[in-house]
Amino acid sequence: MSDLGIVKAESFVFAEKPDRLKLDSGEFFGPITVSYETYGKLSPGRDNAILLLHALSGDHHAAGRYSLEDPKPGWWDNFVGLGKGLDTEKYYVICSNFLGGCMGTTGPSSINPQTQKPYALSFPSITISDMVRVEKALLEHLGIHKLRAVIGGSLGGMQALEWTLLYPETVRSTIVIAATSRMSTQAIAFDAVGRNAIISDPGWQNGNYYGTAGPTRGLAIARMVGHITYLSSASMRRKFGRALLERSDQRQFYDDEFEVESYLSYQGRSFVERFDANSYLYITKAMDYYDIAKRFGGLNKAFRNVRAKFLLVSFTSDWLFPPYQSMEIVKALMSNDKEVSYCNVESDYGHDAFLLEVESLARLVRGFLDHV
């Protein structure tokens, strides 16, 4: 049992007529439902809140279990809890599913109240800034006007950066883990392959697949391709090598024969069971278009007015968001005389290290938060 015990997901609805949310696209959108969980207790002074932001395939269920029979806890249960990296004896931790997701927050699979059908591709284009504006509305609903910290890894780290730009007066500190201020050409290319796998699947039906099996094969391939980018050559070699599966007389030459093939097939199948293909399209597009330097005319200009104290963490074997991208942010902050700490953690887990190097990360985060 997780030390947080049984947790409960909650929801909040806002942006109803006439107060709809204005998106970066210029469109006014709503209503919006936000799913979230909280851990720990909010202090009387409301000054111990930490906003935890998840990655592409994550959700608001970061820690604890929903029932005694729940087979596994939240995605960062080994990091959120009593005495852990985000110590719930000290901090009130909030984790919400972002806009465009498919885990309770409004996204393409949600019902459009005007048509009583899923939005599908009528869902508006969204940006990471739009996601952050929705998170800000949630905090206002909770009566929280200052954050002790914003923390996130991967896409969550990109959102954490965006928080310091949109709401500098709200954020006291920011912890950005294995993230970037803009996607590399190579990362965009991998996303493009995943999206093409989805839209090439006949089951996609131009996004109107709800009520049918949907583009299961395309989404599975997208996940397989994406998952490769989360690993490193060393971790794959150590875990699988060139090991073969047990042979069968019924096996065709094109079936999975290597253990690594079987592993990727499993990742694809399990992803299809919990994720929406259209959400994958919208979220990866939002990531690909995120470019702080382009918006502000350079990273140095972008961070001129931020007030937060920063901790950036990268991992030596992460080739999806490599360390040099974190260093670009560090240098831009230093050029503006901002308080920033940086650590490039030695690890051969690749991009997934932010979920696996728990002890190293916990020491860094605890030490940083103790001095905020």
CATH architecture of the largest domain: 3-Layer(aba) Sandwich
Annotated CATH homologous superfamily of the largest domain: Alpha/Beta hydrolase fold, catalytic domain
Low-confidence stretches: none
Annotation field: number of helices: 12
Domain count, please report it.
2
Q: Let me know the largest β-sheet.
A: 8 strands, mixed
> Taking all residues together, what is the mean pLDDT?
96
Which class do the helix and strand fractions yield?
A: alpha/beta
Tell me, briefly, the overall form. globular
Give the C-level CATH assignment of the largest domain. Answer: Alpha Beta
**Order of helical and strand elements:** EEEEEEEEEEHEHEHHHHHHHEHEHH
Please compute the radius of gyration using only Cα atoms: 21 Å
Count of extended strands = 14
- Portion in helices: 25-40%
Distance between the termini: 31 Å
Question: According to CATH, what is the topology of the largest domain?
Answer: Rossmann fold
